[in-house]
Amino acid sequence: MFKGIITPIVTPFNRDEAQSINYEATKEHIERLLAAGVQGIFALGSNGEFHVLTHAEKTAFVEKVVGFVDHRVPVFAGAGACSTRETVSLAQEMEQSGADALSVVAPYFIKPTDAELVEHYQTIAASVNLPVILYNIPKNTGYSLPPAVVEQLAQVENIVGIKDSSGDLELLQAYTDIAAANDFQVLIGSDSKISVAYQMGAKAAIAGTSNLLPKTLVALDQALAAGEYETANQLQGSIDVLRKALKLGTVPAILKRSIELSGLAQVGPARKPVTEPNQQTDEEIVKMLEFYR
């Protein structure tokens, strides 16, 4: 059973021509997050820019992250790709690299049938011995994983949960109903819905905002676990200041720049075609950061 705040870490890049991965900044960022009390590190999520990394970069990054974490918390690795073949290859290599669990985003660009989705995930799960978490993010894939598909996949031994970033409470309820009836777990991926998801039965959040605000998110998780709902509501609301600022640019440019301007780690820019924020946007980010000081 996964629990607590799991940070889907940004992938730090150098400001060189290749925008190569900055492993020194990666280690620094991970150490800060662990010191703040997060209970999982997730490499190659949406904020981790998995979509602009090569196969070799993905597997090398996961191997480095596993080494940096050194068994202190579980390491989740994003193995999703458009094809079943590529996903299986990534999943197997990430397992060999020491990841503790895999997250597999639904295939994007196309919309598979329910039967195709079931076969896709069954094939991936059968190719590894690690726990597999489904990843539902319709704003990026163009569709949601249907509850009927999730219910069928919940019967697969090592498909253990779903990360839901839909923001759809009706769909979230359907997923939590499936979890309640099976050995299965819902991990909330919409940072604005952490409180309500916990009240529905979620025990963990994969929260992108914890890259910048790990102590706030950890405190929110602890308040919810203790039933301190007034405190939880205050903490949940405070995240909205950052969430509003994130809309100033293309994901994850603003989050990465916020981490740098706060002095936490030199995580670099997002990879092109995403460009760095201009001076005016930097000024807006600084204003946002002042709220959390």
UniProtKB/TrEMBL annotation:
Coiled-coil residue spans: none
Keyword Ligase tagged: no
Active site: 135 (proton donor/acceptor), 163 (schiff-base intermediate with substrate)
Pfam families: DHDPS
Reaction catalysed by this enzyme: L-aspartate 4-semialdehyde + pyruvate = (2S,4S)-4-hydroxy-2,3,4,5-tetrahydrodipicolinate + H2O + H(+)
An MF annotation (GO) of this entry: 4-hydroxy-tetrahydrodipicolinate synthase activity
Entries under SUPFAM superfamilies matching the protein: Aldolase
Positions annotated to bind pyruvate: 206
Broad enzyme group: lyase
Xref: InterPro entries: Aldolase_TIM, DapA, DapA-like, Schiff_base-form_aldolases_AS
E.C. numbers: 4.3.3.7
Keywords tagged on the record: Amino-acid biosynthesis, Cytoplasm, Diaminopimelate biosynthesis, Lyase, Lysine biosynthesis, Schiff base
Keyword Aminoacyl-tRNA synthetase: no
GO biological process terms on file: diaminopimelate biosynthetic process; lysine biosynthetic process via diaminopimelate
Family of this protein: Belongs to the DapA family.
Record's function text: Catalyzes the condensation of (S)-aspartate-beta-semialdehyde [(S)-ASA] and pyruvate to 4-hydroxy-tetrahydrodipicolinate (HTPA).
Protein name: 4-hydroxy-tetrahydrodipicolinate synthase
Origin species: Ligilactobacillus salitolerans
